[in-house]
Model the fold of this input.
Amino acid sequence: MAKSFPIFGELNHSDTINPDDLIDLFLNSTADGICILNMENRFIRVNDMYTKIFGYTETELVGRSFEEINQSDLALEVIKAVKQGEFFHDLVTQCLHKDGSLLDIAVSFSPLRNSAREIIASIGIYRDITKHLTIERELNRTRELYRLITENTTDMIKLYTKDKKIIYASPSHEKWLGTSTNELIGQEVYSLIMPEDKEFLDQVYEKLLRTGEPQLFQIKMRTSDNSFIDTEITISPIYNEKNEIESYVTVARDITDRIKNDEALRNLDRLSIIGQLAAGVAHEIRNPLTSLKGFSKLLKSTSDKQKQDDYLSIIMNELDRIDMIVNEFMSLAKPQAIQFNRESLSAILESTVNILHPQALLHNVQIINHFITDDIDLLGNRNQLKQVFVNFLKNAIEAMPSGGQVHIDVQKVDGNQVLIRITDEGTGIDHHLLDYLGTPFYTTKDKGIGLGLTVSNKIIQEHHGTMKIESELGRGTTITVELGYV
Done:
């Protein structure tokens, strides 16, 4: 009488199962495909999972030779060894599905013995790992692709930790900086920039942490011979499984030549501005010169001490005015080294208004300031920003040939940002022309060279700001500049 086995805990004596039924239950419940081969290598048993893996039915397999289904020489050699009593675990091989597709399989083979310890069959346990290996191959292919990109690109790619220690640097750093990858590993990113740019870089990180968005900026990078190159860098955060920033990746490229070209355009625009403002400056200087000439004659013709003091005081005031006008004009005309510093926005705007005051007088235009009471400091280049606002104010003045008012409004907004609005009462711009503004050498003026807005927009972008132009024919134009403040 066959022995009976209880299953799944405490069962009554009547809740028993036949051993053959227990084997069937096991074979059809396992997640692996199982086949049993006799000593002639013919299928004598397969479970449901085996048929699902290979696409055959049990009827199609039982009685057929293993060689018909699996033509792998390795598998046949393994079966031969198993019949000699050997075991094989987790062999990774490839087998054909019924439809001809190739499957990645992990298989184990064992001999099956009878009660007399004689080998009477072979058991194969199969697991389909096609998806797993496909993902692994794709991952390896992607890794190899990234390796090829990082090792062959001319851009400088760096990966570094949240505390700004470099853990990877692409070989291209040696070409541009003269420093090998091994020398860069472990260094702080601050060691690659100019000391005066550290505050600016910290602001970039602060904005990245605040917004979680990649940041694009320009900065000078130090080379091994202590010179520098101008670079444009994109920095992106890398998040861990808790959605926390744990590292950063940067892609930098040398833009030294581009900077030189941009500087040439700025100089051309600056010279154009100087030429256009020269008449106004000459007119503004002529008035105090007339006073100087008159009071000098009076000073010469009188011996009255009190009158001499009064005349000298007037003369000094007029000389101070000429000095101020000439200095402001020369600061715009004189090429300056490009360097970002902490600058007062009010001082920049006041200096700009002083430069444009003679031009405004010539055109019967009044410039009205609406500065906020507490001053705002920007991290930027004073002369570049002055060139931007000179361009905008000059355009506003020229848009009002019959005179009018230009309003300058400054307003703080959320996120440490400040809005500077310059509004005129001029003729306005047709809406279909607005999209073309800022295109190099495109101008709506008879004597313009079409670089003012192009250069201005580029400078604003380098200061991590934005520019917006709103205009309506007959209603005037408003230019809004948004910049970050410190």
Summary: Residues 256-301 form the longest helix (46 residues). Residues 1-14, 438-443, 446-450 have pLDDT under 50 and may be disordered.
